[in-house]
Amino acid sequence: KTIYVLNGPNLNLLGKRQPEIYGHETLEDVERLCAAACPDSHTIRLLQSNHEGQIIDWIHEAREAACGIVINPAAYTHTSVAILDALNTFEGPVIEVHISQVHKREAFRHHSYVSKRADGVIAGLGIEGYVAGVRRVVQLTA
Ligand code: DQA
């Protein structure tokens, strides 16, 4: 079984971008930790795009290819009805992850379209949040 770990805009710069908020670890570190958290029954496919349509295409692909989705939609969290609609076509578990504690930050980060669909929401645990998300998907799809 495959778990899609989807990442939205600017997360390619994770580790370099505002490290005081997002930390020094990179998306490769996220991939390594997620893979290490996976039992033999599951594998990780970690993807990142700065383009909304690409993320939607991956969610459509996940309908056939994935048992669950862990998604950090980054800024699209707060703007994208299209990503919400795409996630609503997916039948498996969806866990929303934010590296930072978005509720402690600017008011525009407090609302999430994706939370209308997510089965779990994790914020403020740093990149450990992805690991918690993967573990939850494994548990729900065992
Ligand atoms: C983020 C929080 C979002 O508000 C922000 O736009 C991001 C990253 C996080 O992981 O903390 O790009 O999703």
TrEMBL record:
Name the domain of life: Bacteria
In Swiss-Prot or TrEMBL terms, this protein is called: 3-dehydroquinate dehydratase
Q: Site annotated as Transition state stabilizer: where?
A: R17
Classification via InterPro entries: DHquinase_II, DHquinase_II_CS, DHquinase_II_sf
Enzyme class of the recorded protein, top EC level: lyase
Q: Does the keyword Amino-acid biosynthesis apply?
A: yes
| Gene Ontology BP annotations | amino acid biosynthetic process; aromatic amino acid family biosynthetic process; chorismate biosynthetic process; quinate catabolic process
Q: Return the similarity comment.
A: Belongs to the type-II 3-dehydroquinase family.
Gene name, per UniProt, is aroQ
Q: How does it assemble?
A: Homododecamer.
**E.C. no:** 4.2.1.10
The protein's organism comes out as Thetidibacter halocola
Listed PROSITE patterns: DEHYDROQUINASE_II
Which purpose does this protein serve, as stated in its record? Catalyzes a trans-dehydration via an enolate intermediate.
Keywords carried by this UniProt record: Amino-acid biosynthesis, Aromatic amino acid biosynthesis, Lyase
Positions annotated as active site in the UniProt record: Y22 (proton acceptor), H98 (proton donor)
